[in-house]
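Objective 1.3, modelling of assemblies. Example input:
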Amino acid sequence: MINVGIIGVGRIGKVHGESITRYVKGAAVKAVADPFLTPETEQWAKNLGICEVYTDYHKILDDKDIDAVLICSSTDTHSSISLEAIAAGKHIFCEKPIDHDVNKILGVKKALENSRIKYQVGFNRRYDHNFKKTRAAVEAGKIGELNVLKICSRDPGAPPVSYIKVSGGIFLDMTIHDFDMVRFMSGSEVDEVFAYGAVLVDPAIGEAGDIDTAVISMKLKNGALAVIDNCRRASYGYDQRVEAFGSLGQVAISNDTESSAVISDATGVHAEKPLLFFLERYMGAYVDEVSEFIDCIENDKPVSVGIDCGLEPVLIGLAAKRSLEKGVPVKIAEIAAEYGL
Amino acid sequence: MINVGIIGVGRIGKVHGESITRYVKGAAVKAVADPFLTPETEQWAKNLGICEVYTDYHKILDDKDIDAVLICSSTDTHSSISLEAIAAGKHIFCEKPIDHDVNKILGVKKALENSRIKYQVGFNRRYDHNFKKTRAAVEAGKIGELNVLKICSRDPGAPPVSYIKVSGGIFLDMTIHDFDMVRFMSGSEVDEVFAYGAVLVDPAIGEAGDIDTAVISMKLKNGALAVIDNCRRASYGYDQRVEAFGSLGQVAISNDTESSAVISDATGVHAEKPLLFFLERYMGAYVDEVSEFIDCIENDKPVSVGIDCGLEPVLIGLAAKRSLEKGVPVKIAEIAAEYGL
Amino acid sequence: MINVGIIGVGRIGKVHGESITRYVKGAAVKAVADPFLTPETEQWAKNLGICEVYTDYHKILDDKDIDAVLICSSTDTHSSISLEAIAAGKHIFCEKPIDHDVNKILGVKKALENSRIKYQVGFNRRYDHNFKKTRAAVEAGKIGELNVLKICSRDPGAPPVSYIKVSGGIFLDMTIHDFDMVRFMSGSEVDEVFAYGAVLVDPAIGEAGDIDTAVISMKLKNGALAVIDNCRRASYGYDQRVEAFGSLGQVAISNDTESSAVISDATGVHAEKPLLFFLERYMGAYVDEVSEFIDCIENDKPVSVGIDCGLEPVLIGLAAKRSLEKGVPVKIAEIAAEYGL
Amino acid sequence: MINVGIIGVGRIGKVHGESITRYVKGAAVKAVADPFLTPETEQWAKNLGICEVYTDYHKILDDKDIDAVLICSSTDTHSSISLEAIAAGKHIFCEKPIDHDVNKILGVKKALENSRIKYQVGFNRRYDHNFKKTRAAVEAGKIGELNVLKICSRDPGAPPVSYIKVSGGIFLDMTIHDFDMVRFMSGSEVDEVFAYGAVLVDPAIGEAGDIDTAVISMKLKNGALAVIDNCRRASYGYDQRVEAFGSLGQVAISNDTESSAVISDATGVHAEKPLLFFLERYMGAYVDEVSEFIDCIENDKPVSVGIDCGLEPVLIGLAAKRSLEKGVPVKIAEIAAEYGL
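Predicted structure (tokens):
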């Protein structure tokens, strides 16, 4: 039995707490920590049978009986807590992104060298039943050689502008998942990126220095092309799809719905909207990613979504940002070189 | 070039007139006849370049240059005109049903014996792209041995009660197409039928002695089971589907729509209704059935939808009628025996 | 916290054990009992943290700290254990069917009179996300007045003939779920039933005195018609669909799949088969039905799937059986009258 | 009745010849001309009842009884024949593109000034039932303000390299239709374009100086973004789809198939591939575009796809070409300015 501590029990921390307690075999949540503990959170922990509830996460790091931590705190604390957890010898599951600052990610990477610590990044979409099947089809050669990859990724609605301001910008906050998907689906690194962006959802997002709508095209190192379209608003629900085109065919997924009920009446044929947002769409993926993390610890396997999976999408995000600012395509190597990579 | 005369140019006669003129290779409409000729019909004929327009169909039967006739007059005249056309040596395409009276159909059948006349019955659904593909899949063994056949056949709205009164009842007017489909899809004769009926659309239909909603189950001679559901009302459009289940799988079709456009918005995902009614859904089938008829004449091939295809569904319809009246299943052989078959 | 004991921990008992432990809030499995306890089952219980594992279910009935029992033993023991559990004052969740013998069900019903015991029958499909949405649409008047109900219910493969022999026949073993669905979807009782059956899957099933393929049509008391098609074999997976047609429209559901991935290649467009069988398709429903049961106990609400929901489908099943044997439609009232109902 | 002459009766000229003869009301093909007349073409014309068959198209231009010409000859002759036809006072339907050389298009435009000649360009997709419905939904505000437009346009297989060499390159030969679709769907002009291209289908295409796979992103003047993906190969058939995303929702179309038949078996659920290629997919659109052209002549209406619709996509195509060559985004205004526009 792997004992786990969760650092940060906001929305995503609670998701992991519940899914580990209920669904993840071989793991138990021994403790949670959050600097802003509320009575609701304490009750939530109690209901799940989690007895140790702290404001100071160091109590978790100091607990010899805790094997692994989930870092679910705010992004700006991910890298420093990672370093402390590494020093404490804990295995680490860190929510994405590790940091917006490449140097901080590199700091974590360095600290992991020569350690036996498992370090997994929370790119949950890799564990989604639809995306996984798509990748499996590509990997199995069902569509031959990959030629073009198209990712549609649209949120049901924009977050508050206060969040936008500290988000690192759409490319590091939202598209970062899609950059990870490009890498996952193609099995290739990205060579170059070109981004168009616009403020079409909310002028306040533009005033905050960000965009809310984007079309990002890419050349991959394996020769394929890719394109992502992002929007902070999809009135019809969370739109998360991928299409991969290859020499022998195509594979595509559609969104999940609550049920398959279709009503036909005099006004048309009416089906359900996609599931509302990530908690609904990716609940199964949250369970599976942590289950795999636990399995890697128990059986000393390498994690499949490690520190480099946390690093590369940030480099691509920074390249997309520069592309948007300068109006030209940007090589990932250009960004990497600036960090000595 | 096969010269054709059309007897009866109401709705379906006009459909054939237009489709032959435009789409049927090797055939031309030389003349049309209708006892209730209107100026609109005369103009319609003129627009299509049909010069001979009569009130008396005997002028068509007397024309030595006319090779074939399409009998599109009212049902009660089909058999007597068939007999006259046979006597005149014309090939005949007769709209369904040949008659509601089995003896009259048998009279036509007898008259055709030893003649070289092609006699085709207008069961258009056999030529529909969707139904044809389903039959092809069944015939090719794609679903293995046929076990169960389900036919959904629902009209968008009920005809006037005046029509209902002379229609022969739902089983001979509407279900007759579906009985033909059971024979076509299964490649088997029907052994026994049991019918449930109800008046759920319009009480006036019940007052006219008919039903408007039915579920008809059948045992086929090949051992398979079949079920048809009929309704005179489908608010969402003309619903014409079939599902065939076999030892190895299933084949099913959906309705055609005007376009594949799907709109997703905050209220749901909205697709188009099925095409409104038979003229929209089966336009291609009307062309193809007459094209095959012309081909059978030109190349002296046997027709695939001959006089027996006109007879059998009437026998099944009469069995269904008796089943509904008596509340018990009825063998087709019981009806047939009453006609010495 | 409601303490639960599970009597019978074969396949379905284990399903409930896991789902209560993991997902059902406010309930805990305190004990399980099974006369054929295996080491695997003991290990299974231990893994779930269930400490009390008995061969004799009376130990559960005698435990004052156990509030409710789930009867998941073989069908022939359901009614007698129900009576004992009622005598012991336990709330009861009984797997379907309560019994094949109407008198035994009536015995349980009598024992429940004037008691405050919650008695729920395990008709899980009522809790399936797709069926629930269909019922909700019908109930909300989305399709107007219900006219016709069609249920397609096909198992991926036949059970062993040894099971068939003690199953009570297809109508009481398999169709009973569909009879329940007719009542649930329509909100109406069944008036009369007519059944066609055939042995098309395995002759051994016929030799065992049963059929493996059936088309069952019904008249409902609210005037609507219904039809169920059953087969013990669906090579493409578990086929569980319903279509409801009404005065204003239609509602239909399709089967669930593992993912929405669709592969298009030179041979066609390929999607996934339906989920394999009931454990896959109805896992969510198993959780929800027991959650509702627990909620009814905790908050003293009437159960929605009570003893009468266990009785009526058996009456319909017996009527279907008689219809098949005699070749005529059979009124449910005829069967009921034989039991003084 | 409008008399029409067809100049060039290769594949597309024959399509128009047949569709006018059969389906276009108010028009007749009086003559056809082709410098490479074959006996097959002569027979084809005879079968359609077209008596005048020439090698020299001037005979058509000289015929006072001919009101309109369809220019279906090779692209390099479109503009010069257009000029001659304008001089002869004929209304003109010209296949796309008018020319690859902007100056030649401008020459035609100049010649049309102050004339009453109808000049329509053959952008058939605007008349496709699916694309039309999508545009109608966008125009009607069903998705609110347009934010992002995605066009997927993939040919089933690459044309011969000999064709590629004179095609003007993928952007002027293939994408030109999609550039037209961007203008049609958005109701906006394009501001800037950025193109990624690759040779992934056939190295010989690369050796011929062209690409076979492209992702082209665009900024539109109305502020929306657009992206097109093109490939000369789609093993699963002709892939022609569009998705439009707006402030209130999304509209999308799927490909047409020959039938809706779906076969489910032990290996999966199998539907049909998209219709093979443009003749199959756009047959209805070919009829409708010429019908509208004839209607514009008969009723003196302005054509909806006029000379500017022929010009703009060429400017965008040239911008895309330059973008690909230089690796930077290119403004359409930059290209236009070079032609004094």
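Chain B has two domains: 2-117, 126-276+312-338.
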